[in-house]
Amino acid sequence: MEEILEFLSRVDLFERLPESQIHAIATIAKPLQYEKGEAIFFEGDRCLGFFIVQSGRVKVYKTSAEGKEQILHWFDEGDRFAEVPAFDGGYYPASASALEKTQLLLIPSQALLALVEQYPSLAFHLLASLSRHLRRFANLIDTLSLKDVSSRLAGYLLELSDRHDSQQVQLDLAKGQLAAFLGTIPETLSRTFAKLTQAHLIEMEAQQVRICDRQGLQRLADGEKPVS
Question: Which of 227, 222, 193 is nearest to 210 (CA)?
């Protein structure tokens, strides 16, 4: 209980809440553990609540009738997912599975709604979280519909660089997973990496990528300079 309480106090969703409210959330949180590749839920399953990543990493994805996978987002320590169906009492609109050994906290829907009635300020924190996810998915729709694979990959590399505050980064997804996230196939992704290397925008060795021309990569991410 103390470990969960200490963890929740560091999650940005709850960090400004009074200690009494964080303690109330900790009392309803259910620890769950998943092995690499294990399903957390499938699209269409009845929603049990929303999840917070305590350790590990999770992908949320949709699968077409032909079996093609599109990763919508992945979540790391401190991130949360599935808040919307937790509130509307519906079904999960996508599937989720563990990318590695993962520890989650499940916040059950019914217990959460009871807490929101007791502590209305909690609703404002959750609303802010939902708004951030909405912006994220709006950006994803724009990226997949308006940009080619080169632009999508450039944007991903820049975001990864910003996140680690370094011009040299390690890909945080396997290439198959990264291809699914960028809405392409591994073969096309490999060719795109080669094009960016030939254009002297990046250097690459295995999973390590060094950004050589940040401005050029930014122009490509903005769709201004396609790589031929």
Answer: 193
State how beta strands 39-41 and 95-98 pair. antiparallel
Predicted confidence at residue 11, as pLDDT, reads: 85
**Distance (Å, whole) CA 213 – CA 206:** 19
Angle at 103 between CA 98 and CA 109, to 5 degrees: 90
How does 185-211 read in b/e, with b if 16+ C-beta sit within 10 Å? eeeebeebbebbeebebbeeeeeebeb
Are 113 and 25 spatial neighbours (Cβ–Cβ below 8 Å)?
Answer: no
d(CA 220, CA 223): 5
pLDDT of residue 227: 52
**Mean pLDDT across the chain:** 86
161 φ/ψ angles, rounded to the nearest 5 degrees: -65, -45
Do 35 and 101 form a contact (C-beta atoms < 8 A)?
yes
Please, what's the b/e burial string for 127-148 (b: 16 or more CB within 10 A of its CB; e: otherwise)? eebeeebeeeeeebeebeeebe
Which residues lie closer than 8 Å to 112 by C-beta, 6 or more apart?
28, 49, 50, 86
46 DSSP 8-state letter:
B
Listed residue (184, 157, 174) closest to 59, CA to CA? 174
- CA-CA-CA-CA torsion for 20, 26, 28, 34, nearest 10 degrees? 170
pLDDT at 225: 55
* Residue percentage of the chain with pLDDT more than 90: 44
CA atoms within 13 A on the CB side of 65: 0
